[in-house]
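Sharing a chain and its predicted structure for anyone who wants a worked example. Both blocks are below, sequence first, tokens second.
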Amino acid sequence: MRMKQQSLLATGLVVGVAVLSGMGLAAVRAAQTPPLDLRMQPLASPAPESGSSLPQMSVSNKGVLLSWVERTGPKATLRFSERTAAGWSAAQTAASGDNWFVNWADVPSVVRLANGTLAAHWLQKSGASTYAYDVKLSYSTDNGRTWAAPFSPHNDGTKTEHGFASLFSMPGGGLGLVWLDGRAMTSTPGTGAMAGMDHGGGDMTVRFASFDDKWTQTGDALIDARVCECCPTTAVVTAEGVLTAFRNRADDETRDIYVSRLEKGKWSEPKAAHADDWRIDACPVNGPALSAHGRGVVIAWFTGKNNQNHAFAAFSKDAGRTFGNPIALDDEKTVGRVDVELLPDGSAIATWMESTPTGAQLRARRVEASGQRSLPVTVTEMSAARSSGYPRMALSGQELVFAWTEVVPGKAAGSDGALRVKTAIAQLPKR
């Protein structure tokens, strides 16, 4: 069923309608939901007008922090800015180098921890093979003026893939992260696109590490011994500990989204958030998104079962132990690249890239655990190419912040200046 939509940036107002969700999985039937009344405002980006991409956002008690990567020839620079009442703060540099692995889906980040320390991660080449690279970490205790010497959360000594890291503040203090770890794999030179690349033999894994406030490593654990090779991870902190989600890889090439919980120092046995039973003999490069408040959790994900590309969301009331029925997000067909934010009233705002005849649109809608959905809205037109990366959304107080990569008009594809990071905001109405 094709649905009407309005452009947020053009109208600033969206009214909810009743819809049915029949997207090929056992999605919940939807009924009338309160209107999604978002009043969007363009927000001048702190990133340069060309040569910026790979936006990432996190939220602390100081608000939203945006990071991105700037490219000039072989040099890559990780920059960041924080949202203030007057706009974005002046951009600062966290790290730079000419030996980085820079990829549209494996995105560096800067986050502010609970004690105010800034932590950053990026990917640095470790060998000649295309996918031989390490996760590198650094931190700043003076708001980004100076940074500690880079170090790695893994010291396995293999020249294989280590990436797709998700950073978060550990309960009780310090830094935690999960990442894809290829130490059990043999590395071969990559020659193709990410979705069909050959990493060599062995299995990709998901691992966890943690550091205390003095940056002594306190944790190092295997979460899942066989996962999809290049789908981004995600992690949140619930009232009962850390919850992570990633794309698992079964022996029969079923690649559904799995979750695992860190409770009392141990990771639970990974299990499917929902049994999509999507079998694909390649990595789709499409990871999940999580958001949590207390014991409440919402997850969003992409599946391409039966060659039908769709995005879904599901809610949990028990810190991610179990999830309700999937709720369809897209309207006809999606590129995926989802994001989601749990709202104070228990509903959620989800975003995804909807496929269009000319490319894609970044869309958003409110969903509720009952299956109710608002009318979808278009945040912006986008390219469906991989260079457009993952759009991001963050919630701080009553403000939603959106960030995405736009193709610069008139610039040659693949040039250093062909991309730029754009931002916009919307105030959530009180309910």
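Comments welcome. Residues 1-32, 188-198 have pLDDT under 50 and may be disordered.
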